[in-house]
């Protein structure tokens, strides 16, 4: 990489870090970005001259020289995030500080022969809407495997997609950089930039809902595995003679505690009818129905034991739990915690588990974070699309009056 390109990358990283984490001193930036204080001083001088940064108040001192804080001036830089589910698409536009500026949700039929065309139309309409900011790129999160984030070829059992070239289709239609990733990995990036994982370098993000997934941030970097398929917690085998999973195997965790499995359990004992779903099961549990509560308690126990295995193996500093399933978490929690703590090895029993309130647009915010995180893409996971995002940000700097 040429010195000029290195400067562009570090300058972008400074902007993204201040946008995501708020004001910081030059020394804070040097530590966070792992570059020399002299380089930070040089680059922030350029950004101040460009009008993108401003000097704020000084920090208090413990005897040394007070540090001058730096803040972001421009808030017009944004990224679009898209969450693709089997039956709907959620879209958000997110500022460089992680704030959701606008959002919308549309029905979607993933198994339709026209699914990809419909998705492209939805994203294009959202991107072209009046009032959109200076969009750096589009991030897409979906349930499935994406071997290379910057190429975006998708395999997904939940969507019934096989080798769908989604990244190419969207790039051709939008003329914008597009990165595509597994939805839980995208959420993990959002946690790293904006959520409770910000203060940790080793974070395990686990989602429960239609499926069960996990994303691992290790030493500050996302672990994707050989072909982007790391974190398939839902397909850990837990019962040899268990129910058939959508992946084709039997006894997967997802086939036992995913929302479809819980609804099937409720229907099997005639607790709910054929046209009723997880909302009705949760409502019965909320009303005190013992059978409904037992269904969730059993799921909590199974999740606790499976997650204990993951924590024992991966040794995270913190576990963040979220997804549609946490809406009924009060019915999972007791059996989950007992099963988790009893199966952890002694040195890991204090690992904190935090449960975040579920919001549908949080998944789409995670997809947008894929774009905002490209300046930190030291491993080149975003490929050529990461370079294009950086170039768009540099161009926006140079275009400012």
Automatic annotation (TrEMBL):
SUPFAM superfamilies: Actin-like ATPase domain, Winged helix' DNA-binding domain. InterPro entries: ATPase_NBD, ROK, ROK_cs, WH-like_DNA-bd_sf, WH_DNA-bd_sf. Belongs to the ROK (NagC/XylR) family. This is ROK family protein.
